[in-house]
Amino acid sequence: MAKWLCTVCNIYIYNEEKGDSLTGLEPETKVSDFPDSWRCPVCGVARDKLVQISEEEYWLKAKAYTDFIEKKEQIRSILVGVDNPQTTPELRQEYGKPLGLRGIGQGLGYLANFKALSKYSLKKRLITEHEDPVTETTFLGKTISIPILGAPMSGLSYVSNITEEDFAYNILEGCKVAGTIGFTGNTSKDYEIMHPAIMALKRVKGHGVNIFKPQSQEVLSELIKQSENEKTVAVGVDIDGAGSVNVALSGKPVFRKTIDELKELKKSTMLPFIVKGIMCEEDALVAVEAGVDVIGISNHGGRVIDSTPGVADVLPEIVKAVRETEEGKRVVITADGGVRTGFDAVKMLALGADFVLVGRPLAREAVSSGVEGVKRILENLKTDFKIAMIMTSCNTLEDINENILIKSG
């Protein structure tokens, strides 16, 4: 009987005579008879990426695939300081307090986010006509109560008893009931039929954004298609996930992306397309050239590479570079990193971001208190955000600019 090879990962092989217990295929199951839900256990693509190979090539590939499976089945803990923390995240801490060091290496990239924001103070200005500040705005055509969104996160199932789907749902639903929009992350854990983030999106009737790790074009295209089917607000790729060691270790290869690959992904969907993880002007300009709708300025919370600058350090120059392109295209800019209060969020907007993403505080509450906890943190953020606007004489979001900031040093 025929033998097959996955053309995407170049690792997975299939022998129709033997079947595949790993993916639930009985002996003598032909590739043409695979269920529609079947996915390559190595890289996640569908059956149409399998090609028939000779007996000789099959046996040449057999050892590599066996070695891969044996390595994958070894009991392995998540690497300390890499992408996902090994220790249980702090739970039930008070709003605005530090959550503890959770960065790769020495945690310099993580700490840089706080240091960058702390360089700025808000200019208190009060002798003006009083108005209640307007915080409502729209994100990609969707009305939200405040320009603060839930950042894409995953991996909490490694350190708690929550499932990836339930964690994603708590973020999405918590953001929804708080009047804003949440993003989902891309877990390194295996899943059987549908990505848990897409399952969570289904539960909230599409009220969210799916962000995926930079896997192969084929895998991303399929995930984008599934997200479209669930009516997501937008889709995107987390380009600094290319350094996610734990995702690679789990058998889901991740890659840097070229401008042509970003154009291909953008072209593959009618949805707004997001590229998150930009930290330099060069990448920002290339993303704009690729036609993306949103660029996310982020150092991944300092969890992928150490010794990066803080987001607030690079944000102003990136905004300037993007806004001053010859075409004058206004791409939406988000920023995240070290945001713990509504005051921090106002600083990010004043530095040029259109929207601010909040991560760890929501993750903490999504695990410990579920939807209600996520909602509570967002309400606290909104309260401080409005106070900051009042105390700086900003009546509208358009009033929030560099003029309300005082930089130290």
User: At CATH's second level, what is the architecture of the largest domain?
Assistant: Alpha-Beta Barrel
What percent of the residues sit in helical stretches (DSSP H or I)?
25-40%
CATH superfamily of the largest domain: Aldolase class I
Q: Could you tell me the mean pLDDT?
A: 87
Give a brief rundown of this model:
It is built from twelve helices and 15 strands.
Task: Provide the descriptors you would attach to this structure in a database record.
409 residues; TIM Barrel; 2 domains; 15 strands; elongated
Show the helix and strand layout.
Blueprint: E1 3-6, E2 13-15, E3 50-53, H1 55-73, H2 108-118, E4 120-122, E5 137-139, E6 142-144, E7 148-150, H3 164-177, E8 183-184, H4 196-203, E9 209-212, H5 217-229, E10 234-238, H6 245-249, H7 259-267, E11 273-278, H8 281-289, E12 294-297, H9 311-323, E13 332-335, H10 342-350, E14 355-358, H11 360-368, H12 370-391, E15 405-407
Parallel strand pairs: 7-14, 8-9, 9-10, 10-11, 11-12, 12-13, 13-14
Antiparallel strand pairs: 1-2, 1-3, 4-15, 5-6
Helix pairs in contact: 3-4, 3-11, 3-12, 8-9, 10-12, 11-12
